[in-house]
Protein: Thiamine-binding protein domain-containing protein
Organism: Bifidobacterium psychraerophilum
Amino acid sequence: MESPQEQQTTDAGKPYINTVAALCIAPSGVGDELSEYVAQAVATIRDSGLPNETNAMFTNIEGDLDEVLEVVRAATMKLAGQGYRTGVTLKLDIRPGFKGQLTRKPQLVDEILDKRQ
């Protein structure tokens, strides 16, 4: 089990609370194909500058808790602000003292699986 790394702070001097978010944002009532709408939310996330990756079901984002929540709100408002009923699924993994978990978590799983061979 990994132990927490040294406590870090944000530029504002507040404790840095590392957060990995799995986020899905989609409008309701716009038809069967949602990709054009989802792309608007994903563009907002990518423009944030926070580390992120998009897969078939979610966009994962990593950063300080306050920054992540700000991006979640901005991406949600990209659709809701246009008048669309908008569904949001959000899962947060908050791990103070850590960074780089968006890439490190899959690496750890791969290392464990490699040992099994």
Residues 65-80 form the longest helix (16 residues).
